[in-house]
Write a structure and sequence with these properties.
Bound molecules: magnesium ion
Strand content: 15-25%
Number of strands: 17
Helix content: 25-40%
Number of helices: 13
Shape: globular
CATH architecture of the largest domain: Alpha-Beta Barrel
CATH class of the largest domain: Alpha Beta
Strand order of the largest sheet: 6-7-8-9-10-11-12-13
Distance between the termini: 36 Å
Number of domains: 2
CATH superfamily of the largest domain: Enolase-like C-terminal domain
Structural class: alpha/beta
Largest sheet: 8 strands, parallel
C-alpha cells in the first residue's frame, strides 16, 4: 500500500511538473586562512550558486572556480545564461540534460556541475531520499577525511595543526620549496597519517621515486599526481617501483579518461568540478573500482552544497578529501559533517543540505 502511494505521488509529481525556475548568482567564498603555495597566496575563491525550482521544490547547486581550473564567474554565468530552463523541466533526465549541456559547449565543467548538483538535490527531494540511499550505499562506510595544511611560518603552522586536531588525516602539498621542512615540522607535532599532493611538481620519475622513498617511513597513505599529467610512461615506471600508491588527479576528468590510466596509476581522485557533476562522478567511481583502481573523492574550495553532494559517494571511496567547506568562513548551507574525523551523511533528502538563510 505504502509503495502504491509512493508510486502515485511520484506519478503525480511527474504529471504536474510546473514551469521551471532557474536562478544563479556569483558568490565569493572567503577562506578562513590564506591558501599559500610557494608561487601564490589567495584569500578568496570565486563561486556561482544555482537554484532550480520545480513544483515549489528547490534544488541547490554550486560551481567553484579555483584559478587553475580556467573557469571564472564570467565564463560560468555566460554558460548558464545559454541554458533554456524548459530543458530542465524533467529534472530526472540527467543523461539528456548533460547531453544538452554538452551541446552548448564542450568544457565549462564547473558550470555543468552546478546544474547537475542542483538536479540531484531536487530529484532526491522529490523522491524524499538522500542520494547515498538512492545509490544503495551504506553511509557508515564513509571514510575519514583528510584536512589540508599549507606552508606557513612555524608559529602559524603550530596554530593550524592545533586547529586540525579533529581530523585524523592531514594533507600536504609537495613539489614546492620548503615541502620537506613542512613535513618534518608536522612530524614534530603529530604522527597522524599524511596524504601528499604534488600537483605535477616533480620533473622526472627518478626525482619522484627518490622523494617517495624519503616519505616511505613517514606514515604516508598515498602520493597524488607526482608528475606532469601527460606523462603516462613516467607514472607507469613510478607505479612499478613506488612503495606508496600513486593517485591521478589532474590526469583524470571524466570516466572516458579512466581505462587508459589503469596501467600508470593505483587510483583516481574524483571531483565534481572536474567531472561535471554527481551523475558522471558516480559512473567514474564504479568504473574505477571495476578496473581495480582505488577511489578518492576530493573537492575544491566549496560550500557545504558541492561538498555534501560529493560526500554522497564517500561510501564508495578508499579515501576522501572533503574539507572544502571547513576552509571557508561564509558557508551558505549546513550538510555533511565531520564527526570524529569521519564523513557523516545526514539523512536529509537530496544532497543532504539545509540553507543557513532564506
Ligand atoms: Mg590534487
Amino acid at each position: 500500500m505504502k509503495k502504491i502511494l509512493l508510486l502515485m505521488s511520484l506519478l503525480m509529481t511527474a504529471a504536474t511538473l510546473q514551469a521551471v525556475t532557474f536562478k544563479y548568482y556569483p558568490y565569493e567564498l572567503k577562506l578562513r586562512h590564506a591558501f599559500n603555495l610557494a608561487s601564490m597566496s589567495r584569500t578568496t575563491t570565486p563561486g556561482v550558486q544555482v537554484g532550480i525550482t520545480v513544483d515549489s521544490v528547490t534544488g541547490y547547486g554550486e560551481a567553484s572556480m579555483p584559478p587553475y581550473l580556467g573557469e571564472s564567474v564570467e565564463s560560468v554565468t555566460a554558460f548558464l545564461s545559454k541554458i533554456d530552463p524548459e530543458r530542465l523541466s524533467d529534472p530526472f533526465a540527467f543523461e539528456q540534460i548533460n547531453a544538452y549541456m554538452d551541446s552548448i559547449a564542450p568544457g565549462n565543467r564547473a558550470a555543468k556541475a552546478a546544474v547537475d548538483i542542483a538536479l540531484h538535490d531536487l530529484t532526491g527531494k522529490l523522491m524524499g531520499q538522500p542520494w547515498h540511499r538512492i545509490y544503495g550505499l551504506d553511509a557508515s562506510l564513509a571514510p575519514c577525511t583528510s584536512y589540508t595544511i599549507s606552508i606557513d611560518t612555524p608559529e602559524e603552522l603550530a596554530k593550524k595543526l592545533a586547529e586540525s586536531e579533529p581530523y585524523k588525516i592531514i594533507k600536504v602539498k609537495m613539489g614546492v620549496p620548503g615541502d620537506r621542512e613542512l613535513i618534518e615540522t608536522i612530524r614534530r607535532h603529530t604522527d597522524r597519517p599524511l596524504c601528499v599532493d604534488v600537483n605535477q611538481g616533480w620533473s622526472t620519475p627518478q626525482e619522484a621515486l627518490e622523494n617517495i622513498l624519503w616519505l616511505e617511513d613517514k606514515n604516508v597513505l598515498f602520493v597524488e599526481q607526482p608528475l606532469a599529467k601527460g606523462d603516462m610512461e613516467g607514472h607507469a615506471w613510478l607505479k612499478e617501483r613506488s612503495p606508496l600508491p600513486i593517485i591521478a588527479d589532474e590526469a583524470v576528468q571524466t570516466s572516458a579518461d579512466i581505462p587508459a590510466l589503469a596501467r600508470s596509476y593505483d587510483g583516481i581522485n574524483i571531483k565534481l568540478m572536474k567531472s561535471g557533476g554527481l551523475h558522471e562522478a558516480y559512473k567514474m567511481a564504479v568504473l574505477a573500482r571495476a578496473l581495480g583502481l582505488k577511489v578518492m573523492i576530493g573537492c575544491m574550495t566549496e560550500t557545504s552544497c558541492a561538498v555534501s553532494a560529493a560526500a554522497q559517494l564517500a561510501p564508495l571511496a578508499n579515501w576522501v578529501d572533503l574539507d572544502g567547506n571547513l576552509l571557508i568562513a561564509n558557508d551558505l548551507f549546513t550538510g555533511m559533517q565531520i564527526i570524529d574525523g569521519k564523513v557523516t551523511l545526514p539523512d536529509t533528502p537530496g544532497i543532504g543540505i539545509t540553507p543557513r538563510r532564506q
